[in-house]
Write a structure and sequence with these properties.
The chain has 122 residues and is mainly beta. It contains no helices and eleven strands.
Length: 122
């Protein structure tokens, strides 16, 4: 059993900053990619940023230069520093972890957190 838990969401004014955190725990042998996705009301879930175990990052075009993803492999955690927030960044942000659960099983499983709300409003 693997748990993924996000924290750090909240209400912020346009131009402000927030830092999201996510930690994975449980039956984990290794974690490959971790990432952040978001879903606004009435919209599809979209990729915001992902990062591999080798720290190769990928970003949604609209957040490049404003958001920074990082991870701590020892802590099985991933972070999203969000600066210069805009109204359109308002969404429920989900953390994802691609996990191998044992040495003998090469298959990876994707686990999601419950989400943390980010609201950008004046």
């Amino acid at each position: 059993q693997v748990q993924v838990v996000e924290s750090g969401g909240g209400l912020v004014q346009p131009g402000g900053s927030l830092r999201l955190s996510c930690a994975a725990s449980g039956s984990i042998f290794s974690i490959n990619e971790m990432g952040w996705y978001r879903q606004a009301p009435g919209m599809q879930r979209e990729l915001v940023a992902t990062i591999t175990s080798g720290n190769v990052a990928n970003y949604l075009d609209s957040v490049k230069g404003r958001f920074t993803i990082s991870r701590d492999n020892a802590e099985r955690s991933v972070y999203l520093q969000m600066n210069s927030l805009k109204f359109e960044d308002t969404a429920l942000y989900y953390c994802k972890a691609d996990v191998r659960t044992s040495w003998g099983n090469l298959r990876q499983y994707t686990y999601w957190g419950q989400g943390t709300q980010v609201t950008v409003s004046s």
